[in-house]
């Protein structure tokens, strides 16, 4: 188990930090970023509360509990949060046609000479692109199936989730304008966080094309035995994927997490490492700060929580032509952002630790909830839900009765 590696530590006070004078930071040291969770009477003002313009906020009738947020990051920056280096337990692959295999056949190899493709048109193959299908809870069922196939014990696991949900939680420490929600279901002492996809605005052809540029870059940056040298990209299926299943620990809670991996490479010592592939519009003097404040924060969170050490960014022009590539070390990103006082990785971890503590202490066994972050983005709300996804219900049944089929739905 390790605390944040060198350059990522958020303990600015020689180990004497912490959350004010009490765990929830409500002592005389000042109002905490995350006051003590639990239902509060409406309209209460004071430090750390709402008061003023938010005192008439109307609660959802399904309301169970809330975690109020404050704009200050100072308290969390003094908390040193233990984060265990992720350890891979198993993996699975989804191939063309949607079939899932509990092996590594979908893992792609990083193409080390990707710089040779600078100048490539990322529009190539767009006409035959197969867009990603929303699997809903079916995708979560594949993750749970890989856990059962490997006989991984969940006895001491507090949370099972896809990385996407942890990305949302860690990112909410700074990103206070993007709504999200997720399902929360506690069974046999383990909380399953199901991915909920919110409705999106209709996409234009340019939106879809920009999305495709990212997939095309992934194809360019990985080895493809079926494509001859110099041959254009001609068949991209966004549904083909490889997912690593890792175990980690954030604060006091053990987390089992599924994370889609773009590709892998080997170190000089022969150790396999994963590499994240990203695209971005080429930067200029007006856009570099926003890139470092917002995009690099998302890049760092996604790679750090899954133990991915490197990110390769492909920069493109407005027409979709690849103009350059840049390899970033995950740990260097956080150090760079901290030096510029843009954001701190340790604040994200401390924030997530408080959220997980609140969730685990609030939700009840065999009950179902929705966790949401909505306008005005000043609190996390836990709402009662009416049902549990079949994927989780079947999974729990199969853990208890491996030889009997799941009950009919």
From TrEMBL:
Q: Which InterPro entries match?
A: RAI1 (IPR013961), RAI1-like_fam (IPR039039)
Compositional bias ranges of the Gly residues kind? 14-32, 41-52
As for what it does, the entry says: Decapping enzyme for NAD-capped RNAs: specifically hydrolyzes the nicotinamide adenine dinucleotide (NAD) cap from a subset of RNAs by removing the entire NAD moiety from the 5'-end of an NAD-capped RNA.
Swiss-Prot/TrEMBL cofactor(s): a divalent metal cation
Region: Disordered, residue numbers = 1-52
Q: Which family does it belong to?
A: Belongs to the DXO/Dom3Z family.
Name of the protein in its database record? Decapping nuclease
RAI1-like domain location is 84-386
Where in or outside the cell is it found?
Nucleus
Give the CC-aspect GO terms.
cytosol; nucleus
């Amino acid at each position: 188990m390790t605390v944040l590696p060198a350059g990522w530590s958020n303990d600015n006070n020689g180990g004497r930090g912490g959350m004010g004078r009490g765990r929830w930071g409500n002592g005389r040291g000042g109002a905490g970023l995350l006051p003590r969770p639990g239902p509060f009477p409406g309209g209460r003002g004071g430090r750390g509360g709402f008061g003023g313009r938010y005192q008439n906020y109307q609660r959802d009738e399904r309301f169970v509990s809330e975690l109020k947020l404050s704009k200050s990051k100072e308290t969390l920056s003094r908390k040193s949060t233990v984060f265990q280096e992720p350890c891979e337990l198993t993996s699975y692959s989804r191939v063309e046609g949607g079939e899932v295999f509990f092996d590594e056949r979908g893992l792609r190899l990083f193409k080390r000479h990707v710089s040779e493709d600078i100048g490539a048109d990322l529009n190539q193959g767009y006409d035959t692109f197969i867009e990603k299908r929303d699997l809903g809870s079916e995708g979560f069922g594949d993750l749970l199936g890989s856990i059962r196939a490997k006989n991984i014990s969940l006895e001491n696991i507090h949370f099972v989730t896809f990385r996407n949900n942890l990305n949302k939680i860690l990112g909410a420490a700074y990103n206070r304008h993007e709504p999200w929600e997720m399902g929360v279901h506690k069974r046999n002492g383990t909380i399953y966080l199901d991915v909920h996809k919110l409705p999106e605005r209709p996409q234009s052809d340019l939106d879809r094309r920009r999305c495709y540029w990212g997939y095309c870059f992934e194809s360019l940056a990985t080895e493809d035995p079926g494509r001859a040298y110099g041959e254009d990209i001609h068949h991209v299926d966004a549904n083909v994927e490889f997912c690593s299943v890792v175990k980690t620990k954030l604060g006091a809670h053990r987390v089992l997490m599924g994370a889609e991996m773009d590709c892998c490479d080997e170190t000089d010592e022969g150790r396999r490492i994963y590499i994240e592939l990203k695209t971005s519009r080429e930067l200029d003097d007006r856009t570099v700060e926003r890139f470092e404040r917002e995009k690099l924060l998302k890049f760092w969170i996604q790679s750090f929580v899954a133990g991915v050490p490197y990110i390769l960014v492909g920069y493109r022009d407005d027409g979709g032509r690849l103009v350059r590539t840049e390899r970033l070390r995950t740990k260097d990103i956080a150090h760079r952002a901290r030096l510029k006082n843009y954001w701190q990785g340790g604040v994200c971890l401390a924030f997530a630790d408080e959220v997980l503590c609140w969730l685990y202490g609030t939700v009840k066994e065999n009950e179902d909830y929705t966790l949401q972050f909505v306008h005005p983005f000043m609190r996390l709300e836990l709402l009662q839900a009416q049902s549990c996804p079949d994927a989780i219900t079947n999974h729990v049944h199969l853990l208890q009765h491996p030889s009997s089929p799941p009950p009919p739905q």
